[in-house]
Amino acid sequence: MSNDALIAALSSGLAPVQRRSLMREGALLVALCGMELALFLAMGAMRPDMRHAADSPYLMWRVGSLALLAVTACAVAIRSFSPAARTRPGLILAGGLAAAAIVAGMFVTPSGAAHRALLDRIDPASGMVCATSIVVLSLPVMALLGALMRRAAPTQPRRSALAAGLAAGTCGAFAFAFCCPFDDPLYAVVWYSIGCGAVTAAARWCLPRRFRL
Amino acid sequence: MRSELLSRLIPRSSPDAARVSRERPAPPAPDEWGKLMAAAQDGHGGAYRRLLAETSAWLTRYFTRRLPASEVDDAVQETLMAVHRRRHTYDPRYPFGPWLAAIAKNKWVDQLRSLARRPDDELSEEVAVGDHEAAVVSSSVLATLLEALRPAQAQAILLVKVQGYSVEEASSRIGLSPSAVKMNIHRGLARLTALIEKTPDVE
After folding, report:
1. Closest Cα of chain B to A148: distance in Å?
2. Confidence of residue B3 (pLDDT cuts 50, 70, 90)
3. B8 vs chain A: nearest CA distance in angstroms?
4. Best mutation target, A4, A14, A20, A78, to test chain B (most B CBs within 10 A)
5. Which contacts (CB < 8 Å, 24+ apart) does range B115-123 have?
6. Whole-angstrom Cα distance, residue A180 to residue A46?
7. Distances in Å between the alpha carbon of B185 and those of B68, B103, B113, B188?
8. Which of A193, B38, B156, B197 could staple B184 via S-S, CB 3.0–4.6 A?
9. Nearest to B48 among A14, A18, A83 (CB)
10. Does B1 lie at the interface with A, CB-CB under 8 angstroms?
11. Nearest Cα to Cα of residue B28 among B124, B130, B118, B104
12. What does residue A100 show for φ and ψ, rounded to 5 degrees?
């Protein structure tokens, strides 16, 4: 088929299209995260001592840094679905924020935690449950971001998938942060990173498959 | 040394060809093309036809500087199809040029990947078009990019993928086994693709 014939075929009977809107996609993502969090907490998953723990610097650090990371990663992911967007600076920013959050965690370690044995602080048995919960909680957001990515036009689908995975992982971790009973930053850094990392790796592997502009 | 290798492999272009190949693709008119695309998003077929015709000419120049001549038409049509499928993602508040250029670059990388995957035996002498193609390639972005590869990889890609020699012929010219030539082509194209993906834009 010649270029002229292709152009004639594409332009004949052209239907109007609804323009992609970053605001609409962002609102959809916020609504899904909010709904998921509300449903999760309504099921009675919130930690029982939340009222007392809410004032602790540790919980503020955990929830605050995860919220900041989730918002940043979601913005980077949605923005990366545009053809002309550059994803690398956004990913570097998200990585920098994660590193800063980890460093900040050192200042909110509860007194006495530092004297406990490493294995005792990490508690692998509970940690595995935490990491798995984060993965499960991140699935709806990953599905939504995957659908948005396929409908949009990411010209660097691998990086977009990485950003989407990071966004889904941090959203899942944010929701889980309200029910996790462990008050040790080391525990949170290790197992939340494993949970988010697993989601990011899965998204990086799955989302760009069979994707073509 | 790499430049010497390239100049030995590719004949010098004629002054006319050099002038044509030095000519940069005309910069897209962002406002005009953006307005046409905005109209196309609202279902205006005439505006869309004009936009595609103009972008098709731009894309032909773009790919001529980046791909072997036998790949240009495919790349242009693939890009036009992608523009059509993803036209709802264009935001009229921004210029159309970067949006189109990003899609074109993606299709350029796709085309390089498909070149790497294609069995070398399918490329017979019929693909070769002699001096004209070599002249265009000699001053193209592709030739510049090939300089970033190892000499053996650049040599194998030029002979087989650009100039149309069979793997066996290239093997006897280079003095490597056919499997080594194939491996150099495969690795060279993979490296080239990675290089293009890493850079924001290549001119």
Report:
1. 11
2. very low
3. 35
4. A14
5. B115/B68, B115/B71, B115/B161, B115/B189, B116/B185, B116/B186, B116/B189, B116/B190, B116/B193, B120/B160, B120/B166, B120/B167, B120/B182, B120/B185, B121/B166, B121/B167, B123/B160, B123/B161, B123/B164, B123/B166
6. 8
7. 14, 25, 11, 5
8. B156
9. A14
10. no
11. B104
12. -65, -40
Which amino acid, one-letter code, is at B68?
P
SS3 content of chain A, % helix, strand, coil (to 5): 75, 0, 25
Q: Which residues of A touch B49 (CB under 8 A)?
A: 7-8, 11
Which residue from A6, A16, A84 is facing B42, i.e. has the nearest CB? A16
Range of B38-42, B154-158, B196-200 with top mean pLDDT = B38-42
**Chain B residue with the nearest C-alpha to that of A150:** B86
pTM: 0.79
Give residue-wise pLDDT tens across range B78-120: 999 999 999 999 999 999 999 999 999 999 999 888 887 776 5
B27 φψ region: left (φ > 0), alpha (ψ -120 to 50), beta (else): beta
Distance CA A67, CA B173 (A): 61
**pLDDT under 70: residue ranges of chain A:** none
CA separation, residue B22 to residues A87, B9, B27, B137, B149 (Å): 31, 19, 14, 11, 23
Residue type for A18, please? Q
Nearest CA in chain B to A8: B49
Residues of A in contact with B86 (CB under 8 A): 83, 152-153, 213
Q: Name the nearest CA neighbour of A195 among A126, A128, A118.
A: A128
Q: How far apart are CA A173 and CA B54, in angstroms?
A: 48
DSSP A56: S
By the 8 A CB rule, do A29 and A70 touch?
no
Asked if B150 and B165 count as a contact pair (C-beta separation under 8 A), the reply is no
Query: Which among A7, A83, A155 is the nearest to B49, CB-wise?
Result: A7
Give A146's contacts (C-beta < 8 A, 6+ positions apart): A164, A203, A206, A207
CB contact under 8 A, B86 and A152: yes
CB spacing of B89 vs A8 below 8 angstroms: no
